[in-house]
Amino acid sequence: MVDTRTESIRTRAQRPRARAFTATGMSLALLLTVAACAPVADGPPNPSPSQPTVEPDALVGIDPCELADEETLATYYLSEPEQAVVGEAQICRLRFDDGSLDTDYDVTIELFSTRGLDDIVATEITERLPTGTHPMFEWTRESDGGCVASLGVGDDARVDVAAAGADLDFACSLALAFAVDIEPAIP
Fold first, then answer.
1. I need a surface site. Which of 26, 50, 158, 176 has the fewest CB within 10 A?
2. Residue ranges of the domains in the chain?
């Protein structure tokens, strides 16, 4: 029997990619239409940044536990947050527990103010479609076998949402969906 709560989280993880793909396709069609009708200008084009400018210390002073409100925590069956500092990361520890005996997962929100997406150390990194204004990578953490969704904040900072538990596929669905839902709160 399939647990509908677990399937709901898996579905949420798939939805942002489909929405981003549709929006990207529509944006590409609009861009091609505008480009075909635009006059050709002399001289080099003006470069535009691929993502908004972010202050170097954009994550300094942010409480990672405040990135998710109570409603979002309840949607994902997450426990009360507990803040910690591990190394140079500000961390919010949570626990996924939907009431069944076999679905406990550790979930963390980790803020790295001096380590960007280029600083991820992993053997397999998958680039996901951008979420909001932040590029997103997915990777597996070797230390605990957890799945991580990393959101880039400028070039030198990132927010990681990690989930670790018995089922890696579910952990990845949980991390990706939760990352998408907290992304609007990230500078």
1. 50
2. 1-187
Helices assigned H by DSSP within the chain: 4-37, 70-75, 168-182
- Sign of torsion over alpha carbons 8, 172, 64, 156: negative
Dihedral pair phi/psi, residue 82, rounded to 5°: -130, 120
159 within 8 A of 63, measured Cβ to Cβ: no
SS3 123: coil
**Mean pLDDT per 10-residue interval, the chain, length 187 residues:** 58 48 34 34 38 65 95 94 93 89 87 95 89 93 90 95 94 96 95
Q: Which helix (H) or strand (E) holds 129?
A: strand 125-131
pLDDT at res. 101: 64
The residue type at 126: T
| CA-closest candidate to residue 165, choices 175, 156, 157 | 175
In terms of residues, how long is the chain?
A: 187
